Predict the structure of Class I SAM-dependent methyltransferase.
Amino acid sequence: MVELDSLPATRDAYDAVARRYAQLFTDTLHDRPLERALLAAFAESVRASGDGEVADLGCGPGHVTAHLRRLGLRAFGVDASPAMIGLAQEANPELRFEVGSMAALDIADGALGGVISRFSIIHTPPQDLPAVVAELARVLAVGGHLLISCYATDDAAIPTQSFDHSVVTAYRWSPDHLAGLLYDVGVSEVARVLCRPKPTDKRQFQELQLLAAKNA
């Protein structure tokens, strides 16, 4: 486990905008039926493989963690931003939330039945992504499921591209490159969905939803 040099800047940036972020994005699943369906499929897969605990990594204000609980999962949230965790606890006092880093999780090896990483790797510099992916694999039980979301590059031959983000520098990833990093640490792709942007979307990037499972 390692700590990322980029973490303090990302944490401080999200602390500064936490309440505004929560106001803008806590209802984002409402108009995303496909993503809700993928979350439901993820929940069914976790229950079928042992019904272990599920970590929502980069949980922000906790709305996806709460959605996972409504789907019947024993979900808890982790975020690097103490301000975000405070808002998550305020909105969902019955749920568990913790301050933590995706690269250095305070979770035992193989303890989780599932991991959600919804747009939480986008601020991870390319040189640090392999360590983050290895940490996600470490905490998953054999047969455990991962659902990871991010922005995708337009050209599969380009592993990563940086882009301006309103909070802090962000990156989008080649689906094949991300799937390859997962494979290298024993997590195999089950399915991927690439969603084209709507004309009204602020960022005209494809969104990747990648479902994977930890190998025996």
User: Anything to note?
Assistant: The longest helix spans residues 7-25. The CA atoms of residues 43 and 98 lie 21 Å apart. The chain has a mean pLDDT of 94. Strands lie at 54-57, 75-79, 97-99, 112-118, 140-152, 160-163, 170-173, 187-195, 206-214.
